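> call design_seq(struct)
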């Protein structure tokens, strides 16, 4: 994660101390959505550093509906914020609503919050459109340094430094689903098979083992990788990402091989040497 300027860190810490009691009180009084939106808008200024008069828009129109808040930087929408009353538990239908707003607006990031719970989603415009929960944070439970570093991700300063994109990339690289899919990919299975054959040859009296990728994959699936990872609904998406990366890698390798062949061919010049005894004899080709 990018280093946080001291001024920004101090503002975030002060904001946490200020708004934790405000949110606790609002929850105890069970205030409605309108009052919650007012608190969130103030938080966007005091905690996250946005100008609430020029960079935060209320009731952002989206087709026939509207999203509660939108953050605009340099005249363009950076992210949408769908808010619920502070006492409302965030559910799947709220996520669908928020992601649908982002999809209709063509925005990659959307935040769903009730002021206490903050969930940040990345929207991917593929077929079908998908979303990934990148941050899930309880504002009332914030204490450690890592917590306010997470808030920095969608602060104005973090946004302009693409801290959220960087964080998401790091989280994806550490994803158990992606690691499992990588282990089960053909290039890795090939490497494991070669390594197993090398290990078997350490015992000179042992016969040469015959093992194929299917057998290795079966062991990994039944005895090594956790079942809940393999059965996760998003495991298929992770496998597609790994397959796509391997295809790109293979195409890149094929392209480099072709370039090498072309360079080798260009380096060989053909010289015409007349055969002895006749100027009309067929030419002979020889490398320079």
């Amino acid at each position: 994660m990018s280093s946080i300027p001291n001024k920004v860190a101090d503002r975030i810490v002060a904001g946490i101390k200020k708004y934790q009691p405000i949110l606790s009180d609002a929850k105890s009084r069970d205030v409605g959505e309108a009052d919650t939106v007012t608190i969130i808008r103030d938080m966007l200024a005091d905690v996250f550093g946005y100008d609430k008069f020029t960079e935060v828009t209320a009731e952002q129109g989206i087709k026939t509906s509207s999203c509660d808040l939108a953050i605009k930087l340099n005249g363009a929408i950076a992210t949408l914020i769908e808010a619920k009353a502070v006492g409302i538990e965030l559910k799947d239908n709220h996520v669908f609503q928020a992601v649908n707003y982002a999809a209709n607006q063509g925005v990659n990031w959307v935040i769903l919050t009730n002021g206490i719970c903050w969930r940040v989603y990345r929207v991917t415009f593929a077929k079908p459109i998908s979303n990934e929960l990148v941050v899930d944070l309880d504002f009332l439970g914030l204490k450690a340094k890592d917590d306010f570093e997470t808030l920095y991700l969608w602060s104005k300063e973090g946004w302009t430094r693409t801290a959220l994109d960087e964080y998401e990339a790091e989280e994806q690289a550490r994803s158990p689903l992606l690691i499992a899919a990588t282990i089960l990919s053909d290039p890795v299975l090939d490497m494991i098979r070669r390594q197993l054959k090398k290990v078997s040859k350490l015992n000179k009296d042992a016969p040469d083992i015959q093992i194929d990728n299917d057998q290795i994959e079966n062991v990994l699936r039944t005895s090594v990788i956790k079942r809940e990872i393999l059965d996760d609904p998003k495991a298929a998406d992770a496998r597609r990402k790994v397959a796509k990366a391997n295809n790109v890698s293979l195409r890149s390798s094929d392209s480099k091989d072709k370039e090498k062949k072309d360079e080798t061919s260009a380096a060989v010049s053909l010289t015409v040497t007349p055969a002895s005894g006749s100027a009309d004899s067929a030419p002979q080709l020889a490398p320079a």
